[in-house]
Each structure stands twice: as C-alpha cells, then as structure tokens.
Write a structure and sequence with these properties.
- It catalyses: L-aspartyl-tRNA(Asn) + L-glutamine + ATP + H2O = L-asparaginyl-tRNA(Asn) + L-glutamate + ADP + phosphate + 2 H(+); L-glutamyl-tRNA(Gln) + L-glutamine + ATP + H2O = L-glutaminyl-tRNA(Gln) + L-glutamate + ADP + phosphate + H(+).
- It holds the Pfam family GatC.
- The chain is mainly alpha-helical.
- It has a domain of 40 residues: Histone, subunit A, CATH 1.10.20.
- It has three helices and two strands, in the order H-H-H-E-E.
- The chain has a two-stranded antiparallel sheet.
- Helix 1 crosses helix 2.
- The chain is elongated and about 70 Å long.
- The termini are far apart.
- The model has no long low-confidence stretch (mean pLDDT 87).
Length: 98
C-alpha cells in the first residue's frame, strides 16, 4: 500500500508540521520507502530472537559508591588560583548581587 499525499498531510497535522502540497507529494514516496524497510525488518525478526536496543550486550562499568576519606581542604585549595573562606574563588558570571 503506497502512501498518498493525503496520508502525508494527515501525518503532518498530527506532528504539527506545515507542509505545502508540493512537499506532501515529494515526501509520500520517501515515507513509503521507509515504511517498506521497517516492514522488511519485521519479517526477518524471528520469535526466537529477543528484542534488543544494542547490537552488543551492555554491562555496567561503574564501581559501587564507597565512602572514603577526602583530601584536606588546605591540600585541595593549594593548587587553586584563588581561594576564599575555604572555597574556590571564581569570577562572577552573573550580574546579580551576592
């Protein structure tokens, strides 16, 4: 079943996209090719093949969170270009009052 310009117009309305009649005519065969390609993939997908979101299995590479002793404030701020009240001092980027 081929898509018509009216089908494209209906899809455009649903997507809130303004298309001219020429654009509808131009897009109809392109969208039809896309739908045929999706249908072909659906034919190949067998019931014994589980659906996947990635071609390769993914594993979590993050380590578990563990509470550890942090560096002393003096040591952390030693390499800072500017520090104030045990914090990094950075230039103001907003025109707001502190």
């Amino acid at each position: 079943m081929a898509l018509t310009a009216d089908d494209v117009a209906a899809l455009a309305r649903l997507a809130r996209i303004d298309l001219t009649p020429d654009e509808q005519q131009h897009l109809a065969p392109q969208l039809d090719v896309i739908l045929e390609s999706v249908a072909r993939v659906s034919e190949v997908a067998a019931e014994d093949v589980p659906p996947t979101s990635h071609a390769l299995p993914l594993t979590n590479v993050f380590r578990p969170d563990e509470v550890q002793q942090s560096l002393p404030v003096d040591q952390v701020l030693a390499g800072a270009p500017a520090a104030e009240q045990d914090r990094f001092r950075v230039p103001r980027i907003l025109d707001e009052e502190a």
